[in-house]
Design brief:
- The chain is α+β, with helices and mostly antiparallel strands.
- It folds into three domains: 113 residues, no CATH class; 164 residues, Jelly Rolls, CATH 2.60.120; 158 residues, Sandwich (Jelly Rolls).
- Helices cover 14% and strands 29% of the residues.
- It is built from six helices and 19 strands.
- The strands form four sheets. The protein has an eight-stranded mixed beta sheet with strand order 1-11-4-8-12-19-14-17, with no helix packed on it.
- The protein is globular, with a radius of gyration of 24 Å.
- The C terminus is likely disordered.
- The structure holds heme C (HEC).
């Protein structure tokens, strides 16, 4: 009996060792890295080390295991309980298990014949742009220090209303461009009115608690339309092809608009670096059936007390037109802790569009719906968020400060961009006239 038991244990141990050593880099791990990691972990991209070869990957085996087991990598912040996203980056449980097993088995290389073909990464445009608009001259990012968000107002060459089907932002120098957003500033907008065309501009700081307003009395930050952006690892933005393959909707650049490049530069710590960022557009040959609008939802009226580890933020707005929601992008700054975005239908039922339980300022991800969510007229959209203004938040620039709305990272926001497919003649204002909770729309403070 005892022999039998020993035999059994020995056999099981042997089996376990067998299955373990059966997982190899070439056969099992490299395909996972190609599909999920190399978009960032290759030379010239934002991942700190290339994961292209066995030699390059082997020294990182232990930290790769811990990064995938803790779900720190690939970066993805939406709680999987809510929503289905076209750009979901999470690894399957099976892939996580394979990586763990491989590392535990001593990270064997395996047989060269099992290697998958290397991925051919595109350098250059991912779209075929009809028009390219570039910063008129390079901006030099110093080697060290902190650079405020820098804006470039660039007159767009569009003499008539122009519909864009697709767009891509190409940072000139990825080592210093942390993120870049391109906004449309329609004629008459007061936003960044003191900026000289083509010149770098850092807006003056708004005094605490005060919000700069545009001509319509709305906070200036929400009066322009966000067009598209580049965030690390996203390789530009394709706001049409992935989500609306039949080109039902396009974005409008009204005649005479300016483009505003909002640049977040982070010095690379080594040397001064020049950047010349550009944006490319694919133009619609004819006006589309629908307009794709990026609707801002925000609340500028809040006061976060010093030291508060979990101060709640809230914003809401009501859709005055029926639309289809195609993406959402929660946005907060360094004290941002979590955010849920919810639709509350006229029936009273609610639907959590996205829940980000651990917000990370370093990753401003856009969550694209797998299928458009239909939003009847009268539906309320609600943002519920929390900030951590305590000393325990290691990103907190100053836990002793009282914090208000502001566009600097040491100020705060409770904000989301929400992409909707609307009627061709709709505008930000017809789709959503009242953004409740905005100080512009709520009663004045005593
Ligand atoms: C969207 C870009 C992106 C993708 C995709 C990505 N990484 Fe990363 N990775 C980064 C960046 C940027 C860092 C450094 C900063 C950080 O840690 O957040 C990093 C850091 C790491 C680290 C360093 C250790 C650590 O925990 O800080 C490991 C290990 C890692 N990645 C493994 C992976 C693996 C394995 C995959 C695929 C399963 C992957 N990454 C996918 C961008 C990415």
């Amino acid at each position: 009996m005892r022999h039998l038991l020993f035999g059994l244990i020995a056999a099981m141990t042997a089996m376990a060792a067998d299955t373990k050593s059966a997982v190899t880099f070439n056969k099992d791990i490299l395909p996972i890295l190609e599909k999920n990691c190399q978009s960032c972990h290759r030379p010239g991209e934002i991942g700190p080390m290339p994961l292209l070869t066995y030699e390059g990957t082997r020294p990182w085996a232990k930290s790769i295991k811990s990064a995938v087991v803790t779900r720190k990598m690939p970066p993805w912040f939406a709680d999987p309980q809510y929503g289905h996203f076209a750009n979901d980056r999470r690894l399957s449980d099976a892939d996580v298990a394979k990586i763990s097993e491989w590392v535990d088995a001593g990270a064997p290389e395996g047989d060269a014949k099992d290697k998958p073909a290397p991925v051919q990464w595109t350098e250059g445009w991912n779209i075929k742009p009809d028009v390219v608009i570039e910063m008129p001259k390079a901006y030099t990012v110093p080697a060290t220090g902190v650079i405020e968000y820098t804006y470039f107002v660039i007159p767009a060459p569009f003499k008539q209303d122009t519909w864009v089907l697709d767009g891509e932002v190409r940072p000139g120098n990825r080592s210093v461009v942390h993120h870049a957003s391109v906004h449309v500033r329609p004629p008459g907008s007061q936003w960044l009115k003191d900026a000289k065309p083509g010149e770098p501009y850092v807006p003056p700081k708004t005094p605490p608690g005060e919000v700069a307003k545009d001509a319509q009395g709305r906070p200036v930050d929400v009066s322009n339309e966000w067009l598209l952006g580049y965030v690390p690892g996203v390789h530009g933005e394709y706001f049409d092809v992935h989500h609306d393959p039949v080109h039902r909707a396009a974005k409008l650049i009204p005649a005479g608009s300016d483009l505003v490049f909002e640049m977040h530069y982070t010095p690379n710590g080594k040397a001064a670096a020049a950047d010349l960022t550009k944006v490319g557009f694919v133009l619609a040959k004819q006006p589309p059936e629908h307009r794709l609008l990026t609707v801002p939802v925000a609340n500028t009226d809040f006061t976060i007390p010093p030291g508060d580890p979990n101060y709640p933020g809230h914003a809401e707005a009501v859709f005055d037109k029926p639309v289809e929601l195609v993406y959402s992008q929660p946005h907060m700054h360094l004290r941002g802790k979590d955010m849920d975005i919810r639709l509350v239908y006229p029936t009273g039922e609610s639907n959590t569009v996205v829940s980000v339980p651990h917000f990370d300022f370093g990753w401003q991800l856009v969550y694209y719906e797998d299928k458009p969510i239909s939003v009847p007229k009268g539906t309320r959209i609600e943002l519920s968020a929390h900030w951590d203004n305590s000393a325990n938040n290691r990103y907190n620039p100053d836990p002793t400060a009282t914090i208000h709305w502001g566009d600097q990272t040491f100020d705060e926001m409770v904000f989301a961009w929400v992409g909707v497919i609307a009627d061709r003649n709709d505008t930000l204002d017809t789709v959503m006239a009242v953004r409740r909770g905005n100080s512009a729309n709520s009663s004045p403070k005593p």
